[in-house]
Amino acid sequence: MNFNSLRDAYREEVIRTRRAFHAAPELSGHEWNTAERIRAILTGAGIPWEPCGKELPGTLVTIDGVGAGKTILLRADIDALPIEEKNDVPYKSGTKGVMHACGHDCHIAMLLAAAKILYEHRTVFPGRVKCIFQPAEENSRGALDMIAGGVLEGVDAAFGIHVASSVPSGKVSLRSGPSTAATDFFRITLHGRSGHAARPNECIDVAPAIAALILELQTIRSREANPLSTLVLTIGTIHSGSRWNVIPGEASIEGTVRSYDPAVRDLAETSLRRISEDVAAAYGCTADVTYDRLCDALVNDEAMTGIAREASEAVLGAGSTVINPPGTGGEDFSFYANLVPSSFAHLGVRNAACGADKPQHSDCYMVVENALVDGALIHVATALRFLTGSTGQN
Fold first, then answer.
1. Contact of 251 with 238, CB cutoff 8 Å
2. Beta bridge partners of 80
3. φ, ψ (nearest 5 deg) of residue 304
4. Angle at which helices 3-22 and 372-388 pack, to 10 degrees?
5. Nearest-CA neighbor of 139 among 214, 5, 29?
6. How does the average pLDDT of the chain come out, rounded?
7. Is 345:312 a contact under the CB 8 Å cutoff?
8. Residues 65, 127: contact at Cβ < 8 Å?
9. What pLDDT is attached to residue 101?
């Protein structure tokens, strides 16, 4: 298998595929058309597939090699974000208020190409490769649904790739151990008593209460958690009031907590609930708290990461892998990694010269598209290295 020849053969196809999916994004849990298009491409290539998951539109490809052997799962996520795209490109999102602003369109294109290559070369490896196109990563529900549907049955290891705006094009970040953080969601609603803005003495005003709460929640990080621990608490939304001369009777905030240490995660939830209730009481209000643990911290297996590192360097060349610090982004690939030895790579797609320097979740997010074919080849090389002990390059 010659990676240079495959790179030339698949580069433009991967870019075209990525652009087609970029133009038609769908939100988490609603990726039915996306799944149908993935399945149509697989069918057109003669690759068998089956629906997977319990409730969501997942797609599973199973490629059997020659003879008995191990099984590796390759995963791509397929959902988009509720963001209005500002890029002026021919393949701009055609769905108002929805955009592939995290690169999942890239992941689809890379894994489709990898599936084609592995299917075409299925006589060169023993065992089995499973390729899964997973919905609902952005709300951390997809991986659990796929696992409940049985995608990990018989699987010995798992591998995934995420394009990364923080990594230069031509590089791959791979680290064993902690990689992405546990991700939690919270909503806090304070209840007071509304009334006329000119007569605050007749009301219980939630505005100063919610303002105080936002500030007090930050003391969890600064005064309750170990200063050496990783903990992020961010408020993402604030909602209150309907008119300038009405004192609101209700206010709510939503946000996220990121952590690695389970004890710190427990501390954050316990403290958030206590502070919310205490601040509310201090202002004569009551508090309703919702706290949802979305996904666990992702911890990469050392041996599997070594395999992925060797595979990446076989594709991109010696010295192409870097070891970036753990991030505080969330990734529901962690649920696979909790159950089988796994590694998750971050493929560099950053290049300021072509505008590909905006962070994930930006409404101007761009990628270096020429790098995507290398992501497909890294999938292939990692699968071959795991199944055969060699990356398969000649």
1. yes
2. 27
3. -65, -35
4. 120
5. 29
6. 97
7. yes
8. yes
9. 98
Cβ-in-10-Å burial (0-12, 13-18, 19+) of 323 comes to exposed
pLDDT tens for residues 288-337?
A: 999 999 999 999 999 999 999 999 999 999 999 999 999 999 999 999 99
**Residue whose C-alpha is closest to residue 304's, from 15, 39, 70, 36:** 70
Give CA torsion, residues 61, 66, 69, 75, to 10 deg: -20
Classify residue 99 as exposed, middle or buried by CB count within 10 Å of its CB (0-12, 13-18, 19+).
buried
Q: Are 345 and 353 in contact (CB under 8 A)?
A: no
Query: What pLDDT is attached to residue 391?
Result: 83
**Could you report the per-residue pLDDT of 248-275, keeping only the tens digit for each?**
999 999 999 999 999 999 999 999 999 9
**Tokens describing residue 193:** 């008593």
Q: Please write down the HEC assignment for all residues of the chain.
A: CCHHHHHHHHHHHHHHHHHHHHCCCCECCCCHHHHHHHHHHHHHCCCCCEEECCCCCEEEEEEECCCCCCEEEEEEECCEECCCCCCCCCCCCCCCCCECCCCHHHHHHHHHHHHHHHHHCHHHCCCEEEEEEECCCCCCCHHHHHHHCCCCCCCCEEEEEEEEEEEECCCEECCCEEEECEEEEEEEEEECECEECCCHHHCECHHHHHHHHHHHHCHHHHHHCCCCCCEEEEEEEEEECCCCCEECCEEEEEEEEEECCHHHHHHHHHHHHHHHHHHHHHCCCEEEEEEEEEECCEEECHHHHHHHHHHHHHHHCCCCEECCCCCCCCCCCHHHHCCCCEEEEEEEEEEHHHCECCCCCCCCCCCCHHHHHHHHHHHHHHHHHHHHCCCCCC
Q: pTM for the whole thing?
A: 0.94
Q: Long-range contacts: 270-274, Cβ < 8 Å, 24+?
A: 271/220, 271/224, 272/186, 272/188, 272/217, 272/220, 272/233
- pLDDT over 90 at 1, yes or no: no
How far, in Å, CA of 76 to CA of 261, rounded? 27
Supply 122's token pair: 């299925």
Q: Are 297 and 182 in contact (CB under 8 A)?
A: yes
Six token digits for residue 82:
């509720």
Distance CA 326, CA 304 (A): 17
